Amino acid sequence: MQSPQQRLEEAMNEWQNMQREIEKIEQNKQKLDTQLRENEMVKKELDLVEADSTVYKLIGPCLIKQDPSEASVTVAKRIEYLGSEIKRLDAVGRSEEAKMVEKKKQIMELQNKVRAGGR
């Protein structure tokens, strides 16, 4: 059986891992948010384009001609996808934060046990 000190150290390591996970989630969410804003700007520009205009899509180092309506549909789907991914990451982040609160309570209890010198 582990001593209270060992359990405390283990719990603190788990808490730090949770904190790193939340940081990764926030970074991913920020990237997706940036992509969402970029795509919303593209959508606004495509809304200004007339149906007979020429639109090009960058694929690798090449510009490929694309139908404006097809480009609008593609961008709209991308915006929808990015929005749903941001919502998913929000939910995952809230869940991880709730776990961190519980882990923090456990750490505080273990700290009290270590201070008391008991089990």
Model description:
- With 119 residues, the protein is mainly alpha-helical.
- Helix content is 79%, strand content 8%.
- It has two helices and two strands.
- It has helices spanning 4-48, 68-116; strands at 55-59, 62-66.
- It has a two-stranded antiparallel sheet.
- Strand 1 (55-59) and strand 2 form a beta hairpin.
- Helix 1 (4-48) packs antiparallel against helix 2.
- The longest helix has 49 residues, at 68-116.
- It is rod-shaped and about 80 Å long.
- The protein starts with a helix and ends with a helix.
- The mean pLDDT is 93.
TL;DR?
This protein has 119 residues and is mainly alpha-helical. The protein contains two helices and two strands; from the N terminus they run αββα.
Shape: rod-shaped
Count of helix runs: 2
Mean pLDDT: 93
Unreliable parts: none
Strand content: 5-15%
Structural class: mainly alpha
Strand order of the largest sheet: 1-2
Percent range for helical residues? over 70%
Biggest sheet features: 2 strands, antiparallel
Q: What does the radius of gyration come to?
A: 24 Å
Order of helices and strands: HEEH
| Number of β-strand runs | 2
Termini gap = 11 Å
